[in-house]
Amino acid sequence: MLSQKPFSTSSYLFRDHHFDTLKLVQRLKDEGFSEEQSKAMMLVLSDVIEESIQNLTRTMVLREDADRSTYTQKVDFTKLRSELLALDSSDTSVTLASHERLSNDIAKLNSRLRDEIGRAQASVRLDLNLEKGRIREEAKGQELKIKETETRIEQEVAGLRERVEGVKFSTLQWLVGVCTGAAALILGAWRLLM
């Protein structure tokens, strides 16, 4: 038979039984097990329970250790909270300063933009006024030229009328002279013939 190795590293000298071993052996005997079988079952159950308890106690933490760990965690959380608040406060002040600086920059840019727009509008108005003045002067010059041309045309027309009148008058004179001469000839010939 193979030698049995205990599951636990603790010694078997000090055994704290967590149940009534004698009562278990008696009950197993009453159920038909032999005394050796009953003792073997009791030992196996006792080992299993002992091993389970040892496993549980190995994973357990003492109250003092738990309190110490809780206190350390509280201190760490308090430090972390104060650091976060300090960072948040410094970040907030940096953000507020940046916001204020950006607001001032935007206000300056708005002011400069308004000034530039005002200057551009004034320049456009000045250019428009100068152009209007130039157009008015050109229009006056054109009007003067038109009036001069109309005056010349009227003078030419008046001169042509005078010539036409003169030609009419001389034509009438000539016609009267021809008619008078023809009438005198006709009368002279009629007198001669008669």
Key descriptive features of the protein:
3 helices, 194 residues, rod-shaped, mainly alpha, disordered N terminus
Characterise the protein shown here.
It is a single chain. This protein has helices at 21-30, 35-59, 63-193. It has 194 residues and is mainly α. 86% of the residues lie in helices and 0% in strands. It contains 3 helices and no strands. It starts with 20 loop residues before the first helix and ends with a helix.
Explain the layout of strands and helices.
Blueprint: H1 21-30, H2 35-59, H3 63-193
Taking all Cα atoms into account, the compactness measure Rg is 70 Å
Unreliable stretches (pLDDT < 50, length at least 5) are 1-14
Run of helices and strands: HHH
- Count of helices? 3
Shape: rod-shaped
Helix/strand structural class: mainly alpha
Query: Would you tell me the overall average pLDDT?
Result: 85
Helix content: over 70%
Distance between the termini: 205 Å
Oligomeric assembly: single chain
Count of beta strands: 0
Largest sheet: none
Measured by DSSP, the beta-strand proportion falls in: under 5%
Short description:
The chain is an all-alpha fold.
